[in-house]
Design brief:
The complex is a heterodimer. Chain A contains 11 helices and no strands. Chain A is an all-alpha fold. In chain B, helix 7 packs antiparallel against helix 10 and helix 8 packs antiparallel against helix 9. Classes of the chains: A mainly alpha, B mainly alpha.
């Protein structure tokens, strides 16, 4: 056998080993999903531990029906939270990113760094004052249960604390637009807003997609803000899910069905628009 | 004057965000610190300034010691686990494998799901029942002839088990970071090292790994700051139980169950400080690095 053939065989064996390990990890990664699905379709009679890993003998959507009934108000609240929240984040992030990359003022870099710190702060550090502020807003506006205990207050919090990541994503995207384009528009007499509207915004599509997806996912999945700021009327799906699952009486099949229901929107986005999701993740790593 | 006219509109456009960040991030961090330095231990009292008393007194509480220990064990297990697994997966994939897109999609998808939802499955998987009552992983391990565990109920290593769901959730992200890092290593550099009769391992050791350092640092920072403030996952898997208490859960209990704002603010301040000590240098470093061409 020639040396080349040996090397080739060794390489093939190596890549086979790699593939095997990767497949083993796929199985491990999918175990929780298997459990979720299988358990959610089981009738109560098959709840005993001995059959824990078996497929259901009789498939039923009963658990799904009950879970849907319990979770539906929360899911709706989550929609009311995540849709306006992500659109507002997108608008603010886009304007900030534009200015910080193309219409810079003295100290823009320092300001940007100060913004970025807002991305990393543990929100626990602002939570108690935030509650007090929103309670104050309730009294000030005479709107009980709107700011503190309501969805508008939760949207406000998410939009404000979403400014850093949205700004970062847009800024890093706008940096790639050639300065000449902006200059040309300036020479034509267009002002800042005009340039934004006619030159920058039309090419912002990918960044808008990244921010919407990223913000939608984090708003939808948020638990911390929701648990501190909302009440029973405005609980989003995560809090409601945790309450359902925390109740001793709730059978596993319902808990798992509810968990899947609460995850469907973000899963669908991930499957359909995973490419943009990835870019948002990378922006989180501060890679310019 | 003309220069001012060129940048002023920009500043005005960003002004709302500057105000918002100023008030909601820096103002509230300050407010929280200030609250932590008062004796406002119930909802109604005014709160007199007591300096750092709360920051010192909390160390007399057994529960605080426990929650700090838990956070440390969790952080070590989670950061090391996610870093090693993520790196390993990226290492296996970096030269390209068949179906790479599918592998990536599967490793990454847990990130799209909330900790609250996945916590429900993991609580089932890590059920501590053994023998006849075993469900979840213990039942599976029983079949496979492996020992059964207490998982997150283990008094010593419970928090390391608690890191398993977090590793499952985040290692795909680390993989994606490292994969981008691996692919960013110019092929010419590897080629040059090979020409200098480096073995494949040598190429890794001397060319690829040093170039991965910035990615590793980013991953460390991201995992570390997630870990120190971990909350959702713990609540979803075990609720408010002392056996898995961490500072973020303790703070929640202090605010809602003990109705002690000053104590909650003190714990929150400690969480912020623990993150700030490594995030601030990192941010300054990365912004400076970016400015240098």
């Amino acid at each position: 056998m020639t040396a080349v053939a040996v090397a080739q065989r060794r390489r093939r064996a190596f890549s086979l080993a790699k593939l095997t390990i990767l497949l083993a990890f796929v199985v491990i990664f999918l175990i929780p999903i298997y459990v979720l699905l299988v358990t959610s379709f089981k009738p109560l009679t098959e709840a005993d531990p001995g059959q824990a890993w078996n497929l259901p003998q009789t498939w039923t959507v009963e658990a799904w029906r009950v879970a849907w009934e319990k979770l539906a108000p929360g899911l709706w609240n989550s929609v009311l939270l995540a849709v306006p929240g992500s659109i507002l984040s997108c608008a603010l992030g886009s304007m900030n990113g534009y200015v910080l990359s193309k219409w810079r003022f003295p100290g823009a870099d320092v300001l940007f760094t100060l913004f970025l710190f807002g991305m990393f702060i543990p929100y626990q550090g602002v939570m108690i004052p935030l509650v007090q502020l929103l309670v104050g807003l309730n009294e000030l506006t005479g709107m009980q249960g709107v700011w503190y205990g309501g969805i508008p207050g939760l949207v406000l919090a998410h939009v404000v604390y979403g400014i850093p990541i949205s700004t970062l994503i847009f800024r890093n995207y706008y940096v790639t637009i050639p300065d000449e384009l902006i200059e040309a528009s300036r020479v034509d007499g267009a002002g800042m807003l005009r340039t934004y509207w006619s030159v920058v915004l039309p090419v912002s599509g990918p960044a808008i997609a990244v921010v919407i997806i990223w913000q939608f996912t984090s708003l939808w999945n948020d638990f911390l803000f929701a648990v501190f700021l909302t009440g029973p009327q405005s609980w989003p799906a995560t809090v409601m899910l945790n309450n359902i699952a925390g109740a001793q009486a709730t059978p596993y099949s319902q808990q798992m069905a509810a968990a899947i229901l609460a995850s469907i929107p973000t899963m669908v986005i991930y499957v359909l628009l995973g490419r943009f999701f990835m870019r948002g993740l990378m922006a989180g790593a501060l890679k310019g | 004057m003309r220069r001012v006219r060129t940048w002023l509109p920009g500043l005005l456009l960003v002004a709302p965000s500057i105000v918002a960040i100023g008030v909601f991030v820096y103002g509230m961090l300050g407010w929280n610190f200030q609250l932590a330095m008062t004796d406002k231990h119930d909802e109604v009292s005014e709160g007199e300034f007591v300096g750092l008393t709360n920051f010192i007194d909390i160390w007399d509480e057994a529960r605080w010691h426990l929650s700090v220990q838990h956070a440390i064990v969790f952080t070590i297990a989670f950061v090391a686990g996610a870093l090693v697994l993520g790196w390993f997966l990226a290492f296996l994939m970096e030269k390209g494998v068949r179906g790479e897109g599918t592998f990536r999609a599967i490793y990454l998808f847990p990130m799209a799901v909330s900790f609250v939802a996945t916590g429900i499955v993991w609580r089932w998987l890590m059920n501590s029942g053994t023998g006849e009552r075993a469900v979840g992983l213990n039942r599976l391990f029983d079949w496979l002839g492996l020992p059964q565990w207490q998982w997150f109920r283990d008094p010593d290593w419970g928090m390391a088990a608690m890191a398993l769901p977090a590793i499952w959730q985040m290692s795909g992200y680390v993989m994606a970071l490292f994969l981008a890092g691996f692919r960013g290593v110019p092929e010419e550099l590897r080629e040059a090292a090979r020409v200098d009769s480096c073995t494949e391992w040598g190429v890794y050791r001397h060319v690829v790994l040093p170039l991965l350092r910035p990615v590793t640092l980013s991953a460390l920072i991201i995992l570390g700051h997630i870990s120190l403030k971990v909350f959702d996952l713990i609540v979803a898997v075990s609720g408010k139980q002392i056996i898995t208490d961490v500072p973020a859960v303790f703070m929640w209990v202090a605010v809602f169950d003990s109705h002690d704002p000053a104590k909650g603010a003190t714990i929150a301040s400690y969480i912020v400080l623990s993150v700030a000590v490594f995030v601030i240098p990192y941010l300054i470093w990365s912004v400076r690095k970016e400015r240098r061409p």
